[in-house]
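fyi for ur records
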Amino acid sequence: MGRIPEETIQEIRNRVDIVELVSSYLPLKRSGGNHQGLCPFHQEKTPSFNVNEPRQIFHCFGCGVGGNVFSFLMRMEGLSFPEAVKRLGERVGIEVEETPDSPAEVRRREAYEQLLKINDTACAFYHNTLLEAPAGAPARRYLRQRGYEGETVRAFRLGFAPERWEALAEHLKAKGFSASDVRNAGLVREGQQGRGDYDLFRNRLLFPISDLQERVVAFGGRVLDDSLPKYINSPETPVYQKSRTLYGLCQARDAMRHSREVLVVEGYFDLLALSRAGFGNVVATCGTALTADHARILKRYVDKVLLVFDEDAAGRQASFRAMDALLPEGLATRMVSLPAGADPDSLIQDQGADSFREAVAAAKPVLEVFMEDQLARNDDSVEGRARAAEEVLGRLRRLPSDLEKDLYIKQLAGRTGLAEDLLRDRRRAVVSSRAPRVQVQQSRRSGPLSPEGRLQRYLLRLMLADAGVRQRVKEAGTSVLFLDEEYRGAGDHLLKLQRPDGCLPENLVDTTQDETLQALLASLLLEEDQAWADDAGQIFDDCRRAVARGQLKMRLKELDSLEESARCNGDDEALHRCLRERTEINLKIKKSP
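which gave:
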């Protein structure tokens, strides 16, 4: 994809009215200088989603998202920035012409688009075979026996691969696709000893896997009997990476946005069963473990993840691996327990959708289940309880919340009989062995701001309003005035934007495509009518002191690990040095105003 000229982007930005755009997705009502509505990105009953027409920005004071017309459409439709520019260009009648790519980039883009065309053509072939062709009769009977009629089949574009070895290969050749391109799409295998290419999928029910733009990128295939392998999936290609793709996400994202939670299942039929029963917020992994990339994608839409995996040992281990990816993203993760031998499909068919809702309501935090699992795996001896405690403490480091860590340590102490202080000391030792440096980051997304956080926001507000304050910040350095990395980045951004005449650009939110920075700038701009401190000198001095205190506190946390290491190694000299430094730091903190 070529580069879109900045003047084209600016013209589209000037012509699109953000109130009109947002109103096409949700109702807005005027409230003072803004328009307000219920946020489309999280569930709420009282409107906290604000759209400011003069500045052409939006911000939700509930979940923290914010930005301009492009970022709004990107979030709503799952588009890239160039795709959002083109969509809005069409809306206001501006043709988006791109500057030419290099020959290599052109070839790469054309190859990518060719793979998508091949997948779409294959999807239509398989879908038509299932619905109408005589070869699809066994699959039609199979689906009817499982209770799946035409509506679900069409909504998910299910298909059937005929039993013939070259059915798809011949069809794609007749459509004009080259053999090499079809091989690159992963749909055929190269024949040997003079034989032609043959189909990867044969005599299988097919589940098309789509990206967020609803383009088919791969397929999953299931046999109609008990033969093995039960499932096979497309290999990875330039358009399909298993670690970043979730089956059903394009159909589920709206329901996920509104409920702020998602059900994650392992099987395609589990997803279809839940969707048919009215659970729209469900996705499935594509034959792989849940990854950190999956977690980051889910975090765009939800706050809570409900894992609905098999109840056997393999299913529990899959849940615990998923926990390792989900917890660091701050996603509340729970395990849904189903009756022995049941899966979502069989449970709903046998006992109805209400039985599954009851199981979801009874879901337990995954870390709590992990603790129970480790205690059950190890015997009740001193060594067994110690091993279980070590495993749980190792997982606690993935929690971003210190409050949650503390509560789980209390629970672990009660279950093992070990002292809380001992468990806390041991957790610090586990952390220090795996992460030598302590990094503190605060989230803008949820929870009340700390006093230091409020001070830093006030200073940023002053930087927006006063060139003199920006000059003082530049002279002092943002690292001296901003403890929080996100606020420090915003301060650096404002200093970089300042023009020679000392002014800032009018449309600040449009000066970056970073979603986090856009949201922070939008929130600061929309807070201007709210009460905030106006003593610039006091705020400046308070920020400087807050950073100094924060750095001292961070050093105290580092000393915890260093002291533990010194004790373990019997290094009395190092331990004394740490204790002396700790005393000096505590005196400095006590003396600071």
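The longest helix spans residues 536-569. thats all i got for now
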